[in-house]
Design a protein that fits this description.
The structure is a single chain. The protein has 5 helices and no strands. With 126 residues, it is an all-alpha fold. Helix 1 packs antiparallel against helix 3 (47-64) and helix 3 packs antiparallel against helix 4 (67-90).
Length: 126
């Protein structure tokens, strides 16, 4: 296996795992069910913000699986993860490690899916 092919496989696996995670966390935010509602209420955020974050998570999840828009999806989800990290740290909630790890993985995906990397012969873009 070539290095480019290995990178492409790792990129797809990471993208699929994050897509599954963001679908799993985004859909309940949109539907207003489960811990998502209580969490946003506990943090003092309005309902519209919970729904907005859910829409970005679901849209970003789908975007991660579409190479032409994966760079932008990773960027949007990265902004959400910065906000999640901020919320965890400022509100004194444990578990800030998860959004930080997601942020780093999203940064790697964005780097590998950046528009300049999608030219002919860019192994990780496929």
């Amino acid at each position: 296996m070539t290095e480019a092919r290995g990178t492409a496989i790792i990129l797809w696996v990471l993208s699929a795992l994050l897509a599954a995670l963001y679908l799993y966390t985004g859909v309940p935010k949109i539907l207003g069910v489960g811990e998502a509602v209580q969490g946003f209420q506990r943090f003092g955020y309005p309902v519209w913000f919970r729904v907005l974050i859910g829409v970005v998570e679901v849209g970003g999840a789908l975007g991660l699986l579409l190479p032409p828009v994966a760079f932008y999806a990773a960027g949007a989800l990265g902004v959400v993860m910065i906000g999640a990290t901020y919320t965890h740290l400022v509100k004194g909630i444990t578990g800030a490690t998860i959004p930080i790890v997601c942020l780093f993985v999203l940064a790697a995906i964005a780097y590998l899916r950046r528009p300049a990397a999608r030219g002919p012969g860019a192994g990780a873009s496929g």
